[in-house]
Amino acid sequence: MLWRYFFLLAVGSFVVYRLTLAVQISQARRAGDTAREQRLRRLAFGLMHWVISGMAIIAVLFTVLVMVNER
Question: 46-71 burial, b for 16+ CB within 10 Å, e for fewer?
Answer without folding.
Answer: eeeeeeeeeeeeeeeeeeeeeeeeee
